Amino acid sequence: MSEAFDCAKCGESLYGRKYIQTDGGPHCVPCYDNTFANTCAECQQLIGHDSRELFYEDRHFHEGCFRCCRCQRSLADEPFTCQDSELLCNDCYCSAFSSQCSACGETVMPGSRKLEYGGQTWHEHCFLCSGCEQPLGSHSFVPDKGGHYCVPCYENKFAPRCARCSKTLTQGGVTYRDQPWHRECLLCTGCQTPLAGQQFTSRDDDPYCVDCYGELFAPKCSSCKRPITGGT
């Protein structure tokens, strides 16, 4: 008499039937699936022994159930992202949650280098100076009238220029006859003394310190020959 060969779960004979061997003994297929198979997180059905099973963050899926919750694309062999427990393919994730580049209109992909300013986002290579059109990257820039300028371009385009040397004034400066001057450029026409911060006067639009103006243009006392100025 042959030895009994029965399912360890239901006790039915396994002769001539498909079975699966476990540490607890042989099991018929229905008993094996009911005892050991995981439940699919998507369809809530058992994942049978002959099904390809996918596992992600303590959740089990049939291969066909592991898909993007928006476009239903299979994620079995695709990169994906989990957002609020929902599985999303990269295209759907980028469309829903990524920023659009303000210059080219394309999606700024997660993990790519980007720049943000004033509530807008750019690819790093799309954030260009409005003057020379070179990437600004991490360099200093100046926003003006909807554009963004590197410092040299901004100074060349917008910064005031000294009435004497015509170079840009990047800081400081003085005003003479409604024109900007470098402090070091506003000099007495006679002795070349800097006039910024001291009293001076002008003749024929040329500035003079008080001493030079008196010596050159003020009337002289007929007795002492010294210049007669307003303070004399």
TrEMBL record:
Against Pfam families, the record matches this protein to:
LIM, LIM_FHL2-3_N
Keywords (alphabetical) are:
Acetylation, Activator, Cytoplasm, LIM domain, Metal-binding, Nucleus, Repeat, Transcription, Transcription regulation, Zinc, Zinc-finger
DNA repair: present as a keyword of the record?
A: no
Which InterPro entries does the protein's record reference? LIM_FHL1/2/3/5_N, Znf_LIM
> Gene3D superfamilies, from UniProt?
Cysteine Rich Protein (2.10.110.10)
Domain called LIM zinc-binding: residue spans: 38-98, 99-160, 161-219
Principal localisation: cytoplasm
Q: Which GO terms describe its biological process?
A: actin cytoskeleton organization
User: MF terms per GO, please?
Assistant: actin binding; transcription coregulator activity; zinc ion binding
> What SMART domains does the record point to?
LIM
> Its GO CC terms?
nucleus; stress fiber; Z disc
Localization in the cell: Cytoplasm; Nucleus
Q: What does this protein do?
A: Recruited by SOX15 to FOXK1 promoters where it acts as a transcriptional coactivator of FOXK1.
Q: Which PANTHER family match?
A: FOUR AND A HALF LIM DOMAINS PROTEIN, FOUR AND A HALF LIM DOMAINS PROTEIN 3
- Subunit description: Interacts with SOX15; the interaction recruits FHL3 to FOXK1 promoters where it acts as a transcriptional coactivator of FOXK1.
- Name it: Four and a half LIM domains protein 3
